[in-house]
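Page 42, continued from yesterday. The earlier attempt failed because a stray header line got pasted into the input along with the sequence. Redoing it now with the clean sequence only.
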Amino acid sequence: MSGRRALVLVTTSYPIRGDGSEAAGSFVSDLAEELARHVPVRVVAPGPRASCETWSLGVEVFRFAAPEQPLSTLKPWKPAELLTIRRVLDAGEEATRRAVQSGPTGHILALWALPSGHWARRVARASGVAYSVWTLGSDIWTLGHIPLVRTYLRRVLRDAKACYSDGLKLADETRRIGGREVRFLPSTRRIERTRTEPLRSAPPYRLLFLGRWHLNKGVDLLIEALRRLTDDDWQRIETVEICGGGPLEPVVRAGIDAFRAAHRPVELHGYLDKAAAEDAMLRADWLLIPSRIESIPVVFSDAMKMGLPVVAMPVGDLPGLVAGHGTGHIASATSAEAFAHALARALDDAPSRFLQALSGMSARFDLAGAIVPDILRMLQARQQGAHDV
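This time it went through. Structure tokens are written below.
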């Protein structure tokens, strides 16, 4: 790009502690650092208080004060929580304005549509700096089903100069809501490590769940599916690692206690930082994705790049990416029983036979080679268009 006008990334997902609790935030920080190799980047992100910090060379972070509890979990009919929502919305907009006004700015990219796209839209209208939106599953599958919110979401999408979605089916639904062109652009983290210990070709196998302990992520379905495995199935398992944290912690811990009482090889860990998560993937033979709602989870692209086959529920784009490309096993339905059957099939299979398909899928999720160049092309086109006016 000619000139040094900055790209402002507006997001509600960005690392604070670096303890692994912000999987999407890890992707955004990797994206910001990779983009900063080409253009100055300013990030608007939540934090414990309003501040400005230097994240890395070429990346400034403008924090706005926000509670740890996600806005989507707050109840606007409760006066105290409504006040919290109002304060965060005002703080996010003010931080976006400060980031845009702190120096020459070429474009605003909102990750994700709400509330980030709301802040980008309002600041863009006041400053004249164009914005684009990248939608996430929660934007469309959850907020997009609320009538009044859907109406405003449509405005945010339509006023954006460009619109992306991080899933194929998600892009189709975003297109229906916004009535505009939407391009598929997967979210993926930077992975610089490769597998040194080969996948096993015979049991016993090492299984891994890595994610939030939330209904959407299906960790409760995983616990129930593991209960349904037979003694013969468990003979094929060296260990099951369940890593993460979240509101279903009591369910997870109760399940782990029952497995331990039955002498099943199940291990429980909290959130893992990026390095520890990569270690866990590199020692596993199967990654478990029991989600009820999903588009293309970041953990899936991580697995592809580390040569790890998956066992997944048939949700979002996973059936096509898993069954359609031979990168693992897909359950026949979104249920604990169906996931148990898929697990049993995986335990009777050889993970090593999926290596060629995993290598081919990995190239589709290359942050430096595919994702960042796509965004830079969009920025170049928008800048050229502005010069032609």
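Notes: DSSP finds 15 helices and 14 strands in the chain.
Reminder to self: strip header lines before submitting.
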